[in-house]
Amino acid sequence: MKILLFDTTNAFLTPGGKTTHALKLQQEISKLGVDIQFSRWWDKSQEDADIIHFLVADTKVAQLAKMHGIKTFFSMIFDFESNKSEKQKKIQRLKNHLIDYLPSSISSVAYWHALKYMDKIQFMHQFDKINAFQYFPQILKEENTVIIPHAYDPMDMNISNHLNIAEMHYPTKYLISCANISERKQTVKLAYLAKKAQVPIVFIGNCSKTDPYFKRFEQEIDNKFVFYPGYVSKEWKDCIEAHAAGYVLLSRGESGCIAVYEAAAYQIPLLLSNLPWAWGYENPTDIYYCDQQDEAQAIQQLRKFYNLANKMDHTPYTIHTWEDIAKLYVKEYNLLVNNYQNK
């Protein structure tokens, strides 16, 4: 069985979870004896692929795959839509409906037209799936969907024994926020709240130093409550997370968020946005929610979370390794190939 992982954007242009997702899948699925490669547009030797695993909704490529008898699998990220208000969702669904009435030269590029060419569509959690069915009830079918969550890699942990956290000059107790410095992650807002609540937070994440949003974040760094060591090595990331008391992310929308799984593996509590993306984690026990639209309440919630945050003897929800999750993907791949061969 040969699988091709397909996307259209260079990782260095949009660094983040999608890249990690693809790399971890290729790493772990290949260990299970499956030939899984990254799609190379120039490589004709890949024409014997059984399945193209899409990380982006590309209608033309999906259509061509079907024409060539190749099965299609799509990891559907529906984070922004899932986390809109009900009013915003209704407006967006109406806009989508109107787009479908535009000339085909315009409407055909809409991402949802790729869905009808996907043999299996995977969601990271139930809220993305529920909302996708509300948006596209005529296209999606229950039997063609599956929920497979994100995971963490234990090989990225406990690799910093040679490092000394004291060298970073952080407070004895601090929280972490691992995410790209971006508007979607609301990094500036969290930094502002950290100073208002007088709660020390170490921010770890990639950035574009020419981005005006990053410039705004830089102005919040005071090395008293807002710390930013930059994009650090895996070893330093492990060291910083291993010594953290808790994790905070006030993102506007996620589909699982790998950084949350990685933080959970360190057995620390989580403070997340009070939005659907944060409600979909399996068997939560130590996940807290921040009502970020109310500044006074958010400050109080952040301070309260900091006071209770500490290392635990369990994870804040049920998590899985990429090795575990890889087996779920392979199961779905096999179902696609076997069903195709039996027809």
Automatic annotation (TrEMBL):
Superkingdom of the source species: Bacteria
Transmembrane segments: none
UniProt xrefs under InterPro entries: Glyco_trans_1
UniProt GO molecular function: glycosyltransferase activity
Domain Glycosyl transferase family: 174-309
Protein name: Glycosyl transferase family 1 domain-containing protein
Species of provenance: Bacteroides clarus
